[in-house]
Every structure is written in structure tokens, then in C-alpha cells.
Amino acid sequence: MKFMVIWLLLLAYAVFLAPGSEGSDPVMEQVFAGNWNEIDPLVLTVFNSLGIFPLVILTILLRNDRQKWPAWPFSLASFAGGAFALLPWFAFGDRPAKRGLRTPKWILRILRSNIWLILLLIFFFGNLLTLLQGISLSGYREAFMESSLVSVMTVDWFILWGLSVNAVHRFYPDANRKGLAWIPIAGPVLVLFFVKEDH
């Protein structure tokens, strides 16, 4: 029920409440034009992380895809829709079902490999390099107020963070160092390094 409420609130925020200019969106224009250097580094880092978060959540869900609804369609849709795509699964699909794991074995071998987990961490730390250009909270706040893209993606980022923590605690309640899951993006990946699963 709580995920359904969050999903409805997210939709309401995106449609009715998100701040931003009534005309053209300045950040979205720069994104579509490919003018990455014109985008605030912190805004760009958050924007890019919305492509890494779904990889992390996909890894967790597909390693445990035994629930009522298959997780893979929602996981794949999250690359375009973020939390908008994942919340319905968390709300309705994450129910126990008497069935085996859906994920093909060859995909499981990849998702359970340390090489894949290291690759996710490389994506994460590579994205952080953008911040070497400088961090301006005032610049981010200005972009948040002027761009509906930035305001919605910020809320989306925080919800994805919460979903990733929830997924770790849901599927790996006995995992060592599961408190690391609270570290955005990298934390759940680090937890998976300590998880032992039947192959």
C-alpha cells in the first residue's frame, strides 16, 4: 500500500507540483542539444546516476525474480521511467509465489559475478568524476526551481535510493553489512559482494 501511495504522490508531484519554468525547460534543452558542458556538474551527476540506479535495482530484482509478477519488465522500463516504472511492481508484484527463479541461468551468472559488481562500481565512481568540475548547491537549487526535469529527477533519485535499500533488506535480510545499502548506488552493490547464493 505504501508504494502505491508513493507512486501516486510522485505522479501528482510531476504533473501538478514540480517547480519549473512555464515555457521551455532550460536543462532539457541542453540535454537534447547534447550541450553537456552547459549543465551544472551536480545536475549532470544526478542525471547520469538515474541510468546507474536502474542497473543496481535490476541486478537485485533479477537475482531474486520469484515473485507474483515478473520483475524484468519493470526493471527494464525503469531505464526510461525510473521510479515511475518500478513502484507498481513494488506495490503489487512483490508478493510471494510458489515458483522457481525466472531469470535465465546465463543472466544469473553475469549478475552474480564479481566482475559485474565491479563494473557497476566503476560506473558509479566514473560518474562522480563529473563533480571534479565543481559542486554548487546554489546552482543546483537554481536549476531545481527553473527546470521541471531537474525537480522531478531529484525526487525520482531519492525514491530510487529508497527502493534500492528496500530491495536489499527485502531479499537479503541476513546479509553481512547490509547497513551499507544506505550508501546511494554503491552501497547495495557492496552488500552483494558479501552475499552467498546457490548457483
UniProtKB/TrEMBL annotation:
<keyword id="KW-0472">Membrane</keyword>
<keyword id="KW-1133">Transmembrane helix</keyword>
<feature type="transmembrane region" description="Helical">
    <location>
        <begin position="113"/>
        <end position="132"/>
    </location>
</feature>
<protein>
    <recommendedName>
        <fullName>DUF2834 domain-containing protein</fullName>
    </recommendedName>
</protein>
<keyword id="KW-0812">Transmembrane</keyword>
<feature type="transmembrane region" description="Helical">
    <location>
        <begin position="42"/>
        <end position="62"/>
    </location>
</feature>
<feature type="transmembrane region" description="Helical">
    <location>
        <begin position="179"/>
        <end position="195"/>
    </location>
</feature>
<feature type="transmembrane region" description="Helical">
    <location>
        <begin position="144"/>
        <end position="167"/>
    </location>
</feature>
<feature type="transmembrane region" description="Helical">
    <location>
        <begin position="74"/>
        <end position="93"/>
    </location>
</feature>
